[in-house]
Amino acid sequence: MPAAPGGPRLLLRRLREAMAEPVSPQARLDRIVVLIAANVVAEVCSVYVLRDDNILELFATEGLNREAVHLTRMRADEGLVGLIAKTAEPLALSDAQQHPAFSYRPETGEEAFHAFLGVPLLRAGNTLGVLTVQNKTYRVYSEEEIEALQTTAMVLSEMIASGELQGLAPDAGTAARRAISVRGTVLAEGIGLGYVVLHEPRIIVKTLIAENSEREMARLETAIEKVRSAIDALVERGDKMGTAESREVLETVRMFAHDKGWLRRMREAVGSGLTAEAAVERVQSDNRARMVRQSDPYLRDRLHDLDDLANRVMRELVGDEAVGLPGMLPENAILVARSMGPAALLDYEPGRLRGLVLEEGGPTSHVAIVARALGIPAVSEIENAAALCDSGDAIIVDGVAGEVHVRPGPEVEASYAEMVRLRARRQEQYRALRDVPAITRDGVRIGLHLNAGLLVDLGHLNETGAEGVGLFRTELQFMVAQRMPSAAEQQALYRAVLTASGDKPVTIRTLDIGGDKILPYMPKLEEENPALGWRAIRIGLDRPALLRVQLRALLKASDGHPLKIMFPMVATVDEFVRARAIVEREKAHLRRHGYTLPADCQLGAMVEVPSLLFQIDEIAREADFLSVGSNDLMQFLFAVDRENRRVADRFDPLSVAAIRAFRLIAERAAAAGCPVTVCGEIGGRPLDAMALVGMGFRNFSMSPAAIGPVKAMVLSIEAAEVAALIETETARMHDGDSLRPVLAAFAKARGVPI
């Protein structure tokens, strides 16, 4: 069959004219399918739109029975049209009736047609519908015709996404605007209602059809060259830095910038009559559609690379003024991003933020820690999050159930609004307990402290009534900086922290980097298992200059006040002894130079490596205090990666093995007269904290939001009764059993809030 007269450029010009006609949306859509059928020389052209109930509905047709419009509906995985919607790939068949997925609706009259060509209607990688053409004869569609139909499909996608077709079918919205609910991983608790702000917003292409294709091709080529030059400069800079791993990454990026297939597709899209921006958007949307359907992590990363490069080209085309800046936040903003570092989150005005949604990032990531510090509900591992919504869309972040609702219906919105009101009333009740000591009903005092990592966290001390800071993470200062903080900068922060805490004690942990905590200005060390690799105190002991600078800054900052320093990831008593020796040398140095030393300098060790369980008596004698890092301790004890959703829930911290480990620490520390605090997530959950109280722990450090609920629990229990229950139940428990159901029933029977 010969190509259509005029080709795609003529079709796009006619489509532009049809889009400008002052007619109803249905009349415009009817006109468009007639134009497409004529251009492709097909007897049939049909548009199916994916409704918000995941049903494909025939919205317009030329050549089929028009009475079937808005009556013909099929599941999103049904027939050839459903196959295209599912795979997001074009499908060209010379005899469609021989395909295994072929099916037809008698009311349409399509049984007389053999040749079939269908393309998905894509926007930002999401399928909005399907565009098809059909012929009675057996016909092979050319690559040029497939390309032309894909280009046309992009114009239709923007028409659907604009909401123009809403109302054509009274009981259906379109997929572009439908309500979406997805489940992810909780990073920070709370509930946020607001409106989407894309961290790296997708640039909306307003002009799709080119006036002058030669000029658009020149604009595209110029933008590509600028992107290549920028990447070349980064590669040269990496060469001067001398970091092989950085050069390798940059060389990979440069390779993709010269990828002939990627460049050819953009050039072909411009050649078909699209503007340079529309061509980049079309290729980018195709890549995103493949990305979200790709299970191979390597291929997903490569598609992400192409996606990032397309964003670079797009920004060159539209200029910086079209890209939103972090400071430009509306009220009730909820950030949506593929990923984000702690520094990027801190660039935004926290008073306007109501939530955070990420595609990537685990509960122990530093952006999660910052979100918790700022009191921002956050959910991660939301696949293709940035493409599920547009800036300004209504959105709800449920940091309790780990759910995200995009464009929620009135009932969902009303339900969450009521939930927010209930949580606010509960917070008022917790605030009323602020000055009430955390003492159990049988007189056991429990110390409740804060986990912190930013100066802004210290404001929560008075708000919550916490007795002090049980864990101050110093690595956040290093992670949000563009370069290594100087000794003076470190000293200024530590002094500000100690000043802001007043008379309340602060336990400051030395730099805990490595593994998943990478400093942006230091080369990343490739390790087979970074969680078990060169990190935390191991780096400090192997590179003592880094540790000495931090310790000296801490000692100077204390200026006569008490100081508590804690070393992370101690695996042997010898490591603690060596770290303590470095502290003593720094104290001697400062003493010689006339500096005022801390009034009292206590040194502690984190118990988070299982090997320390078998040296617990020795470390309790050597250290001034201990702190249980329950997150890492459980991870290492059960060989479970907390960031891996396949295995993260395969253990329970209230199972037999975990309880034995916790009780061992509490009992041996008490025997040695060594204070011990639990500073991991388990201590901030009321039910788990109740169990820890029964095991003998008397100090906990947690997020600010957890103080109130845990204190309410403490005030409702008798420590001796809980201890007796645990003693009795653990004696009869078998391997694999959990104490959780028994404790939950106990709490319910006695009205303990958990």
UniProtKB/TrEMBL annotation:
GO terms for molecular function: kinase activity; metal ion binding; phosphoenolpyruvate-protein phosphotransferase activity. It is an enzyme of class 2 (transferase). Gene3D superfamilies: 3.30.450.40, Phosphoenolpyruvate-binding domains (3.20.20.60), Phosphohistidine domain (3.50.30.10), PtsI, HPr-binding domain (1.10.274.10). The keyword Cell cycle does not apply. One of its GO terms (biological process) is phosphoenolpyruvate-dependent sugar phosphotransferase system. Its cofactor is Mg(2+). Belongs to the PEP-utilizing enzyme family. This is phosphoenolpyruvate--protein phosphotransferase. Its main location: cytoplasm. Residues 210-237 form a coiled coil. PROSITE patterns: PEP_ENZYMES_2 (PS00742). Its EC number is 2.7.3.9. NCBIfam families: PTS_I_fam. It catalyses: L-histidyl-[protein] + phosphoenolpyruvate = N(pros)-phospho-L-histidyl-[protein] + pyruvate. One of its GO terms (cellular component) is cytoplasm. Residues 24-170 form the GAF domain. It is found in: Cytoplasm. Keywords: Coiled coil, Cytoplasm, Kinase, Magnesium, Metal-binding, Phosphotransferase system, Pyruvate, Sugar transport, Transferase, Transport. PANTHER family: PHOSPHOENOLPYRUVATE-PROTEIN PHOSPHOTRANSFERASE (PTHR46244:SF6).
